[in-house]
């Protein structure tokens, strides 16, 4: 569950989003590089208690916000190092790197809410990030392909078109496209987004099979397939900067 709230401190306002989680035991405040303040709360923590905690941390929050304002990193790339947080279908997983004799090639998978990467033991320490990156990219591409295929099957039926040929790959600054020959291209990094945002992009590109431009007729089709698409479209605009590997 999510809720927006705000407090005043030192003559300024702090807007923040409360994100409740059943699993969480301890509260935490997060200032994100996009200048958003998140309050991660265990289920049941009252809004008043949270306000008090945000107030107590106000100075720290302002300092963080100022730092991000001065050090804006629009395209922050991943470092592929231990403990770094990776998004997958909108959820966050810490990266765990294991050097092991069990693999000949780098391998990525999920285990116990962590993104595990196993790389051959003979990899030298200063060269770890490259095979880790390769493993994560391969794994995410494969997962993205499966998700997109599933969605295309469902929505092609609804739109009454044959399931189109599609490619899932890395596209710079683009989430998807539909060619004149109706070949769909979807950016694999969308697998980092919450499922409904990925779904929106797939629906959007699929509707271009019937309507090539962004006419009122096009948006009507999108709405028929996904009545709440606007919410997910806006969220993708707001949060898309995070889906970078
Ligand atoms: Zn379009």
3D architecture notes:
The structure is a single chain. The protein is globular, with a radius of gyration of 21 Å. Helix content is 36%, strand content 27%. The chain has six helices and eleven strands. Strands 1-2-4-3 form a four-stranded mixed β-sheet, with helices on one face. A four-stranded mixed β-sheet has the order 5-6-8-7. It has helices at 47-56, 58-70, 129-159, 195-207, 216-225, 229-239, and strands at 2-9, 12-21, 28-31, 37-42, 85-88, 91-100, 107-111, 114-120, 166-169, 176-178, 184-187. The chain folds into three domains: 2-70, no CATH class; 85-142, no CATH class; 144-242, Zincin-like. The longest helix is centred in the middle third of the chain and has 31 residues, at 129-159. The protein is of the alpha/beta class and 245 residues long. It binds zinc ion. Zinc ion binds at residues 204, 208, 214.
From the structure above, extract its key features.
245 residues, alpha/beta, Zincin-like, 3 domains, 4-stranded mixed beta sheet, 11 strands, 36% helix, binds zinc ion, UTP_pyrophosphatase-like, YgjP-like metallopeptidase domain-containing protein, YgjP-like_metallopeptidase
Short description:
This protein is an alpha/beta fold and about 240 residues long. It has helices at about 45-55, 60-70, 130-160, 195-205, 215-225, 230-240, and strands at about 1-10, 10-20, 30, 35-40, 85-90, 90-100, 105-110, 115-120, 165-170, 175-180, 185.
